[in-house]
Amino acid sequence: MLSHTLSPGPSTLIRSDGEPVGWAVSAEPVDYPAAVEAMEARVAAIVAGEAPELIWLLEHPPLYTGGVSSREADLLDPTRFPVHRTGRGGQFTYHGPGQRVAYVMLDLNRRGKDVRAFVRGLEQWLIGALAEFGVEAGVREGRVGVWVERRGAGWSREDKIAAIGVKVRKWVSFHGVSLNVEPDLEHFGGIVPCGIAEHGVTSLVDLGVLATMDEADAALQISARRVFGALVPESPPA
Questions:
Q1: Which DSSP state fits 70?
Q2: CA angle centred on 178, ends 202 and 187, rounded to 5°
Q3: Domains of the chain: which residue ranges?
């Protein structure tokens, strides 16, 4: 069975000073290079003490990204969509319309300086958001991301519903997570998602949960407060 928890995130992820995290949502799709440039600038400002932390929600046009552990053999169709090499952890993943990407820029100096606890917090955040829709999700030993177990008459399988890929610089995090709300699942066919060929991918809508992106954002916000603390609205990065 999938292991899962809906409890609040590790206490090390809650800032003792109560400083809120910025919460920004981009209304229009953002090109990947522009998003990375904006993240780099914001992370530099956080490191310098010149900007607050930020969780930035957005969508990308269809594209593939390859993390530092990506294998060329897992890029099955390199001409299907643009391919971007990135410094985040992990392997190949897909981003596109109907998928909520959240870039998480937190100062881990103020949240325990524990990368494993941070990743567990990201997992708990996603699991808690999915629970708002009645979806039971969890993590699997040896597999990155968040998974759901699906059953039918005489069969069962596990599909991935959310991916995690992060980077930390001077104890400030960036990149983050992606949650499949209603993407075109066929677009994942150009890669081996996260290097795992024996399992599939799913989405809220594929599971029969007819959630809008706004509803997914609301669930993510509720869960984020439990895991990361207070949030404050902010305009998206330029």
A1: -
A2: 50
A3: 11-233
pLDDT at 12: 65
10-residue mean pLDDT profile of the chain (238 residues): values are: 42 84 98 97 98 98 92 92 90 95 97 94 97 96 89 85 95 97 96 76 96 98 96 94
**Which amino acids are annotated catalytic?**
194
What is the per-residue pLDDT for 81? 96
What's the per-residue H, E or C state across 95-161?
A: ECCCEEEEEEECEHHHCCCCHHHHHHHHHHHHHHHHHCCCCCCEEECCEEEEEEEEEECCEEEEEEE
Specify whether the CB–CB gap between 75 and 66 falls below 8 A: yes
Statement: 11-233 belongs to CATH 3.40.50.2300: no
Provide the greatest CA pair distance for the chain.
Answer: 57
pLDDT at 2: 39
> Is the dihedral angle over the CA atoms 187, 189, 194, 198 positive or is it negative?
positive
pLDDT value, residue 4: 40
pTM of the shown model: 0.92
What the block records as the tokens of 14 is: 């809650």
Question: Nearest to residue 162, comparing CAs of 190, 208, 128?
Answer: 128
Determine contact, residues 13/107, Cβ cutoff 8 Å. no
Distance, in Å, from the CA atom of 76 to the CA atom of 93, rounded to the nearest integer, reads: 12
What is the chain's alpha carbon radius of gyration, rounded to the nearest angstrom?
Answer: 17
